[in-house]
Design brief:
SHC Adaptor Protein, 477 residues, PH-domain like, Ubiquitin-like (UB roll), alpha+beta, 14-stranded mixed sheet
């Protein structure tokens, strides 16, 4: 139940080609001359190496897709965005998830999905979710790489400021050496040891003599070429991990054997993010930067082809215009947003007028339900579940969601991320002149509903550590 099978690619090569070209033009996969499309057409007629891939969303629903063997993770995400009518903001990603091992990792955009699936165990599966932090280190590198963990290249002699040197490495095929203490799990045991570790282009090493870098004191922990790095999501329970910030390096040949996994723990989230980001940079180099730049180039080259759609699966609503003789669907997202704001303001005016006339009060169910259609509202989820969602979708500044308060049935909670730390702010109702308002600063700033509150803090920081930027969302496939 809840599964949807995409049959189009399997019907005929013609239908698949039409579908794929539509996806390219509307989502902007890449820019090719007309001759290339004709060449792709001829190739498609003879190409029959399709593979079955099943992709799940956060709510457990899934899509079965038949894809060519050379389809990349980015291509599949674009296809899912196109098929599910999601808003494409370049933050969607494909996640390799191993429930029994408790492992997650975001596929790089250039990875071939079929190849990754061939190396997965039978219990492994793909998830479709947002990850706002996937390329955040290119925009804010100093937030990801603490100076004490970065060993500067000897040839610079300290003449280049750390920020410039780090930016230089991030925008090229290399990365500075990363060093620091990590907890390492003994293979086949439950015990952990704290050792000094070095991450270089040649691999991950630990020192058998304190913090010594001498080659005779270094032992290889893992090779980068034939391995991938994963976040461990069940570390405390499954591995008796000393901290909550566990990750592991998994050789590609390993499917479900715990003994072959190199389990590690960092002291805090920033350290874990540093190690994992550096691993990706050292493994893939300039490919990551090219992946990061492609969406920006795509917007420039294919702006006249793009036809962004309002998300049906995310919003559960379609913007309509009933000003004419017949209604029409508003496809333009700018026009749709303007219509939504206009409707919201009209709703507030009607609500206020009803309150003055003695109609049902502001806490009437009709006035409480308006925020429940918003992407950022997640109802009665727990504090732990909100933490999990924020972590999964990338701990970038301004990532947020709203939920019902567990301690106060009349209140709500704003959960947001700042400097890779998750913070909670209670939104309390307050009464003034017979009207109920909502405030998260003890009544200093009051709002008639939660939509108005969110809109305000998207434009103004107020008492928050930063503005609200990215809504934490879940889409049903």
């Amino acid at each position: 139940a809840g599964n949807c099978h995409l049959h189009a690619p399997a019907l005929t090569p013609f239908l698949y080609l039409y579908d794929y070209l539509c996806m390219i033009l509307s989502c902007g996969h890449s820019f090719m001359p007309a001759s290339s499309y004709w060449l792709g057409f001829n190739t498609c007629l003879t190409f029959c190496a399709f593979q079955i891939v099943k992709v799940f969303s956060e709510d457990g629903t899934g899509k079965v897709v038949e894809i060519p063997a050379d389809m990349t993770a980015r291509d599949l995400c674009q296809l899912l965005v196109y098929k599910s009518h999601c808003v494409d903001d370049n933050s969607w990603t494909l996640v390799e998830h191993h429930p029994l091992l408790g492992l997650d990792r975001c596929l790089e955009d250039h990875e071939l999905v079929v190849q990754v699936q061939a190396l997965m165990s039978s219990e492994g599966k793909f998830l479709f979710r947002k990850n706002y932090a996937k390329y955040e280190f290119f925009r804010n590198p100093l937030n990801f790489f603490p100076e004490q963990m970065v060993a500067w290249c000897q040839e610079t002699n300290g003449s280049i400021p750390p920020s410039q040197l780090l930016q230089k490495f991030l925008n090229s095929s290399g990365c500075p050496e990363i060093q620091g203490f990590l907890y390492l799990k003994d293979v086949g045991r439950k015990s952990w040891k704290k050792l000094y570790v070095f991450l270089r282009r040649s691999g991950l090493y630990f020192s058998i003599k304190g913090m010594s870098k001498e080659p005779r004191h270094l032992q290889l922990l893992a090779d980068l070429e034939d391995s991938n790095i994963f976040t461990v999501i069940t570390g405390k329970k499954l591995h008796n991990a000393p901290t909550d910030f566990e990750f592991c390096i998994k050789p590609n040949k390993v499917r479900s054997d715990f003994k072959e996994l190199r389990m590690m723990c960092a002291e805090d989230e920033q350290s874990r993010t540093c190690w994992m980001t550096a691993f990706r940079l050292l493994k893939y180099g300039i490919l990551l930067y090219q992946n990061y730049k492609i969406p920006q180039q795509r917007k420039t080259l294919l702006s006249h082809f793009s036809t962004p759609m309002r998300s049906v699966s995310e919003n559960s609503l379609v913007a309509m215009d009933f000003s004419g003789r017949i209604g029409r669907v508003i496809d333009n997202p700018v026009e749709a947003q303007s219509a939504a704001l206009e409707e919201g303001h009209a709703w507030r005016k009607r609500s206020q007028r009803m309150n003055v006339l003695g109609s049902p009060g502001p806490l009437h169910p009709s006035s409480l339900m308006i925020h429940r259609t918003q992407l950022w509202f997640h109802g009665r989820i727990t504090r732990e579940e909100s933490h999990k969602m924020i972590i999964q979708q990338g701990q970038v500044d301004g990532l947020f969601l709203l939920r019902d308060s567990q301690s106060n049935p009349k209140a709500f909670v704003l959960t947001m991320c700042h400097h890779q730390k998750i913070k909670h702010f209670q939104i309390l109702p307050c009464e003034e002149d017979g009207q109920i308002f909502f405030s998260l600063d003890d009544g200093s700033t009051k709002f008639s509903d939660l939509i108005q509150l969110v809109e305000f803090y998207q434009l103004n920081r107020g008492v928050l550590p930063c503005k609200l930027k990215h809504p934490c969302t879940v889409v049903a496939l």
